[in-house]
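FW: tagging you since you asked about this chain on Friday. Here's the raw sequence from the shared folder, copied in full. Didn't touch anything.
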Amino acid sequence: MTDRLDALSQALISAHDGGAPVGPVPAEDVPADMAAVYALQNKIMAGIGPSGGWKILAGGEGEPICSPIPANRYFDNGATLDAAKHRFIIAEVEVAVKLGADLTGTVNAETAHAAIASVHPALEFVGNPFVDRDATPRNLQLGDLQSNGAVVVGPAISGDIQSAVQTLAVSLSYDSAVSKSVETGANWSDILAALVWLAPHAEKRGYPLRAGQVIITGARVATPMGYAKQVEGSFGAWGKVSATCTR
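HL: got it, structure written out here
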């Protein structure tokens, strides 16, 4: 089973980087539960390199679902990305937090708040390494680092945004045309609660939350990209993040 998990993880890594897409996976190799999902994530991370942060949905119901994100999938604002090679199919606008201190050991809302150095607008690009994504079991997509392809991190925003994140005006634009916008989302307490849950989980899995890492907290807006070249996420008057996609 270990050899098959190794082979699956390497196939997914390769497909995200322009290699052959992954065809139907035998049922016995599809993660049966969240423990198996996270085992596949860890195997993929081991094949790529160090973690640059995590993704987690803040404000959702039940136990959060999360994934580490490799450091080499983080990019600065304005980056140019090869959308064809990496098979990007969806862009998302997210609230990201950058840590100024490690979050390990006993963590509560106060220590999580104190560890956050800055808040940023971020774009996450969803990659599709599968021959038929619609036919791919959800647990396999979750094991594939929740389909993460890349994260572009925008400039830091004033700390005053913490009180405004729940009613933040967020929009996603493709080639200067707004694709979708919203004005509601997780509040600051939800984001802190997500970090409180994530810290021991990440540490137990061997990818602890460290100073300098960026955690994205769930899609505020997400739509298919088509063949868009210019992608921009806006937090209204608070700030923007953008990327150029080549094909």
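FW: The mean pLDDT is 97.
HL: agreed, and The chain has one domain: 2-246.
FW: great, closing this out.
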